[in-house]
Amino acid sequence: xxxxxxxxxxxxxxxxxxxxxxxxxxxxxxxxxxxxxxxxxxxxxxxxxxxxxxxxxxxxxxxxxxxxxxxxxxxxxxxxxxxxxxxxxxxxxxxxxxxxxxxxxxxxxxxxxxxxxxxxxxxxxxxxxxxxxxxxxxxxxxxxxxxxxxxxxxxxxxxxxxxxxxxxxxxxxxxxxxxxxxxxxxxxxxxxxxxxxxxxxxxxxxxxxxxxxxxxxxxxxxxxxxxxx
Amino acid sequence: xxxxxxxxxxxxxxxxxxxxxxxxxxxxxxxxxxxxxxxxxxxxxxxxxxxxxxxxxxxxxxxxxxxxxxxxxxxxxxxxxxxxxxxxxxxxxxxxxxxxxxxxxxxxxxxxxxxxxxxxxxxxxxxxxxxxxxxxxxxxxxxxxxxxxxxxxxxxxxxxxxxxxxxxxxxxxxxxxxxxxxxxxxxxxxxxxxxxxxxxxxxxxxxxxxxxxxxxxxxxxxxxxxxxxxxxxxxxxxxxxxxxxxxxxxxxxxxxxxxxxxxxxxxxxxxxxxxxxxxxxxxxxxxxxxxxxxxxxxxxxxxxxxxxxxxxxxxxxxxxxxxxxxxxxxxxxxxxxxxxxxxxxxxxxxxxxxxxxxxxxxxxxxxxxxxxxxxxxxxxxxxxxxxxxxxxxxxxxxxxxxxxxxxxxxxxxxxxxxxxxxxxxxxxxxxxxxxxxxxxxxxxxxxxxxxxxxxxxxxxxxxxxxxxxxxxxxxxxxxxxxxxxxxxxxxxxxxxxxxxxxxxxxxxxxxxxxxxxxxxxxxxxxxxxxxxxxxxxxxxxxxxxxxxxxxxxxxxxxxxx
Lengths: 229, 561
Known about the structure:
The structure holds 2 protein chains of 2 kinds. Chain A is mainly α. Chain A contains 6 helices and no strands. In chain A, helix 1 runs antiparallel to helix 5 and helix 3 packs antiparallel against helix 6 (199-223). Chain A is elongated and about 75 Å long. Chain B is mainly α. Chain B has one domain: Up-down Bundle (Cytochrome C Oxidase, Chain A), CATH 1.20.210.10. The chains are: A mainly alpha, B mainly alpha. Chains A and B meet through helix 1 and helix 5 of A and helix 6, helix 7 and helix 8 of B.
C-alpha cells in the first residue's frame, strides 16, 4: 500500500496510498463541478418546461423512443463493462482489463452511432432550430386554443434547442471519454496497473459512470414527457 | 511550530537567504524550464507576470472611461466606443485579473508551503490551468483586436444574443475557457488541503489564508461551471441561432440573469475571500498577536461561501422578478453581511493591545478594514429593496463594488504581494517608497470613488458617456483621483522590479511572523522543505514569545525595530 518505490509514485506525495486517495478525491470534486455545469441546462429545462408544457410534449413526441431506450440499455451495459474493468485492474489481470475497457469503448461508440442516426432524423424533418425549423412536423393541431397553439409553435424551437444542447453536451463528454479509455487500455496492456496501483482506471471509471448517469436523467426528461392537462 | 532554522555561517550572508544557494529560481535555467514547469512557485510567477499585464490593460480601459467623463458632453469618444471601454474594463478586471489574482499567485505559491507540502496535489493540472488561462486571454485579445465588445461585462440577453454587432462570441469563448482555469485551480486547492497537510496540522491549526482559499475553491467548483455553461448558451445562441433565451420564441431573457448571477454574485466572493485570508495573515503578523476568534474567522469564510450562493436575486430587484422572491433575496443578502462583519470585528479586536507596527503591508491591511467596511455597509443600502429602486444602475452601485473589489481585493493583493515579496524573490523592497505608494493608492482610491457615491445618490446613471452639467465637479474629482491612482499603481511596479536586482537580501523571516512559510529559506528550494515539517501548535502562536526578535525558534532579523 505505502510503497514509495513503485514506478507510478510521484515524489510530492507521502506515499502511493496518499497519491491514490488524492486522485480519486480529485475526480469526485471534478464530478461535483460537472453536475453544476450540466445544472445550468437542467435549470433552463425546468423553467421552460414549466412555461411551455405543450411545446415540450409535442416536441418530445417526435423523438424516437425505441432508439433512445436501446441507447439507455447500451450505456448501462457500458457502465457494467467499465466496472468489470476496474475490478480486473484491482486484481491485476492485464488481458481482462484491456478486454473490458475495449468493450466499454465499443458500447460507447454504438451509443454515439445511434445518436447520429437520431440527429439525422431531426435534420431530415426540419426539427433543427433556426430558419429552416418547421413546427408543422410536430402535428400540434389538437391544441384547440389558437393563442396556445401559436405559442407552442414558437416554443417548440426552445425544446429542440435544449434537446440538442443537452444531448450534444452529453455526447461531447463521451467523445472526450472514449480516447481517454483507449489511452488507459494501452497503459493497461503495458502492464502498468496492478493491485498496488490502478487509480487511473478507477477515476476514468468514475467519469464514465457520471456520464452514464447524466443520460439516465436526460432520457426520461427529453423522451418521456406525458401529455399536459 | 517546529522550525527548521536555516542559517549559514559564511561571512556577510543574510541568515536564511537562499539566493546564493540552490532555490526554485536558480534550480533550472532557460525559458522552457519556466514554460513547462510543474513547480507551484514557478507557476505562481507565470501567473504574476500575466495578470500584471492584464491589470494594466484593464487600467488603460478605465483611464479611457474616466477621461471621457471629465466633461458632461460626449466629446472624447462616441457612445459605442464608450460602451466598449467600460465593457472591456469590466471583463479584463473581473475575469482576467481579480478572479485569478490572489488565488493563482499567492495561493499557488503559499498554500503548499503553509500546509507543509512539497507541491499541490496535481502539479501538471496546475500548469494546465495557466495555459487554459492564457488560451482564454488569447481569445479575448483577438476579440479586442477585432474591435472589442460592448455588451457590458454581464452579457445581458437579448442584447448580447440578438442585437449586438460586436465580437460577443470571441469574448464569450475567452471567458468560458478561462473559467476552467479557475475551476482547476480550485480543484487542486481542495484536494491539496484535504489530503496533503503536514503531520499535526489539523483543520483548526491551518492558517486562515488556507481556510479562505478553501472556501474560495468551493465557490470556484460549484459556481464557475454554471456561468461557463450560461456564457456557452449565449455563444451557441448567436452562432447556431438556437432559441435558448430568445423572447420572440417564448424564451426568457430573465432566465439568463438568474443563471448569470447564480455564479457572478458568488464570484464577488471569489474575489474578496482570498483577500480576507491575506488580511488575517497581515493583521496578526504586524500586531504580533494571536488572531482574535480564530474559529469564527475560519467558519465565517465557509458561511460566506454557502450563503453567498443564495443572494443572487438582489441584482434583479428591478427585473420584474416576484416581489416575494425579492424579499427573500433581500433578507439573505443582509444575512451574508454577518460573517463579513465577524471578520472585520475580529481583525479590529486583534489590533487591540497588539504591538502594532506600520510596515507597508500593514498600511494596506488597515486601509482594507476601512474601505471594505464602507463597501460592505453600502452593499446593505443596495440590498434593501426600496432603496435599491432609487439607486439601481447609478454610480452609487459602481462606487459600492469598487470599494469591495479595489478597496478590498486589490488592497489585500498589494498588501500580500509586499508581505510575501521577500519570500517569493529573496529580496526586500524599499520600505520608504512602499509607504509612499500605499498612501497614494489610498488617497487616489478615495478621491476616485467617494464622489461616485454622491453623484450616484444624486441620480447619475452608470454606463452613459454624457451627463448633465451639474454632475461635472464630482466627475472631475473622480477623474483626478483616478489619475493619482494610476500613478500610485505604477510606483510599486517600478520599485518591485528594481528590488529584483538591487534590493537588500531578505532573511528567512523578515517580519518575525509565524507560519511554515517563514521557517524556510527565501526564496524556497524546489521542494520547499528539506525535511517533512511537523506542526505542534496552532496558527499565530505569537503569545508564547513576547519578544520574537530574541526567540531562538523564530529566525532573527526583523526588518523593522
